[in-house]
Design a protein that fits this description.
- By secondary structure, this protein is an alpha+beta fold.
- Helix content is 29%, strand content 14%.
- The chain contains ten helices and nine strands.
- The chain has a four-stranded antiparallel sheet. A three-stranded antiparallel sheet has the order 7-9-8, with helices on both faces.
- The longest helix is centred in the middle third of the chain and has 18 residues.
- The mean pLDDT is 91.
- Bound molecules: zinc ion.
Length: 277
């Protein structure tokens, strides 16, 4: 954190909007800033301690473990650069669509796929060993899976599982989608990259691997009317209801993949779909 930064503790203001009002003017006037900060506070309860404004009007998010994460690094990025070196703002670059089913998506539209690694390591653990200490077993549609109990993720998965159990009992034909799980916790980079997957934190689950499509194995344009639309909307909605985003809503699709991203869904529900500035 640069010296001379001003600190804004979240407990010192009646609302996030008032905190943003108290920031130096260039920051206070930023579109969507209050929405993004509120999404972090709501999505990661107890984890966001304060914000800090540096003399050159950069904003930092300071977590309860003391780590410091820049909101906007000021760089203009390509889609690939947003994945490789995202700041906090880049988490919200594409607004995650709540509508189902999903059909054609614009090129490089990947809502939630940019994940600032230092932020998620601070929340869930910075190593396999540290993440492992927080894993608990969750009953998921007749199987036991390992999920992180940090940040309410395992509890959220339990709520998804309860909803899915009800859906499957009403619509037995949907059972195939919650069988043959592809896995949850696995400390590993995303294939072909050095970026950690959300599976590394025990905060993602892959459903029926047999029926999935992955952009690296199939041209992004070809999934439109195939598994993206075939995936039962009520299953997707059960996940979304409890804070999980679906990889089928990415241009670079991963249709078996659901990850716990309550902040991304919070922004989608907060108002009309808008791109970040
Ligand atoms: Zn996955």
């Amino acid at each position: 954190l640069p010296s001379g930064a001003l600190h804004f503790g979240i407990g010192s203001y009646p609302s996030t909007e008032e905190l943003v009002h108290a920031l130096p003017t260039p920051l206070a006037n930023r579109p969507h800033l209050a929405t993004h900060l509120q999404a972090l506070i709501t999505g990661y309860p107890g984890q966001i301690r304060e914000f800090a404004a540096s003399p050159d009007d950069k904003l930092y998010v300071i977590l309860s473990n003391g780590s410091c994460h820049i909101y906007d690094d000021g760089k203009t990025k390509s889609a690939a650069q947003r994945l490789d070196a995202p700041d906090i703002k880049d988490m919200f670059f594409d607004a995650y669509p709540l509508a189902n089913p999903t059909d054609t998506l614009p090129e490089d539209f990947d809502p939630g796929r940019a994940r600032p690694e230092a932020f998620f390591k601070a929340i869930y653990g910075a190593s396999a060993e540290e993440v492992s200490r927080s894993l608990v077993s969750v009953d998921f549609c007749g199987k036991k899976v390992s999920f992180t109990n940090r940040n309410g993720a395992a509890d959220a998965l339990k709520r998804v599982a309860a909803d899915l159990t009800a859906i499957v009992s009403q619509h037995p034909e949907s059972r195939i989608w919650v069988e043959k799980l592809g896995g949850t916790y696995n400390w590993r980079p995303i294939a072909g990259t050095d970026r950690l997957s959300m599976h590394s934190y025990g905060a993602a689950i892959d459903l029926n691997a047999d029926r999935s499509d992955y952009w690296k194995w199939k041209a992004p344009g070809t999934v439109r009317t195939y598994s993206r639309k075939a995936f039962p909307a009520e299953i997707i909605e059960a996940f979304e209801r409890h804070g999980f985003i679906w990889g089928g809503k990415w241009y670079h699709f991963d249709t078996m993949h659901f990850e716990y991203r309550p902040e991304v869904l919070w922004v989608s529900r907060a108002g009309p779909l808008q791109k970040s500035p």
